[in-house]
Structure formats: structure tokens, C-alpha cells
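Technical appendix A lists one of the benchmark inputs used to test multi-chain prediction within the project. The record comprises three sequence entries:
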Amino acid sequence: MASSFFEDVYEVARLIPKGRVTSYGAIANYLGVKSGARMVGWAMNEAHKLRDVPAHRVVNRQGLLTGKMHFATPDTMENLLASEGVKVQEDKIVNFSDVFWDPVSELN
DNA sequence: ACACTGACCACTG
DNA sequence: CCAGTGGCCAGTG
């Protein structure tokens, strides 16, 4: 099996329930890579283009849509989140703690 | 083959 | 409390 860092990221990203969001660090932490958050975002860059990975459900630790500019349009990410019931304001997720989905706690 | 960068996070001073 | 730096993997110049 191609147990690559990217592969794992794709898996977790796809497991994110609709209407929920997670952070790069949370995924990295779940994968056991403490400081691999940077690569998670990078993996997403390829992932959301090549695979059906909901990269719009992955934001930074602050709930800020840091990667919105990497989508087709800067409004794509915000639009997708809003479409799933996630409220976004000022490029930031409202009630972030409420919609936050931690793979370590959920997937255990 | 080397160095730097990249949608980040946490620690130290 | 605020600012700075290190660290992880993979890809590109």
C-alpha cells in the first residue's frame, strides 16, 4: 500500500462529515506527524484538484480560510462551506469550535 | 545534487 | 503579552 503522507491526508479529509471542518494540525496530529501541518495543506493543494477531497472543510487552527485563494476562485471555499451550513465571515469560520471535527476524537 | 519553498503549529525568549 | 524560530515531507528551480 502506498502509505504516503498524502494518501493518509486524503483519507482523513474525505472522512470529514458535511457541515464540519478540521484543521491541518489536527490531521497531522492524527497521522502522528506533529509538525506536518504544512505538508497537509500542500497535499490538499494537489488533492482537491486531482481527488474528490473536500479541501474546503480543512482550515487553519484559527478557523481562517487560508487556502481559499488556492481554489478556482477565492469565493469557492467560502461558497462551499456556506452551502454545507458552515457560516463564514471575514474569511473565518463562525462558531469554529462548534463545527470543529477532530479526527483523533471522532475516528479514535 | 543542493537549496528553498509551501493552504501550518507549537515552543521559547 | 508579542515576536521570532524550528520542524516536518515532498516537489521544484
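The first strand of chain A starts at residue 22 and ends at 23. The mean pLDDT of chain A is 91. Comparable benchmark entries are summarised in Table A2.
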